[in-house]
Amino acid sequence: MKKEQLGELIIASEETLYRVAKSLLYNDADCADAIQEAIVKAFSKLHTLKEDTYAKTWLVKIVMNECYAIMRKEKRIISLDDYQMEDQAAEQDDYSELYEAIFKLPEPVKLCVTLYYLEGYSVKEVAQILDVTESAVKNRLLKARAVLKESLIAN
Question: Which pTM was predicted?
Answer without folding.
Answer: 0.67
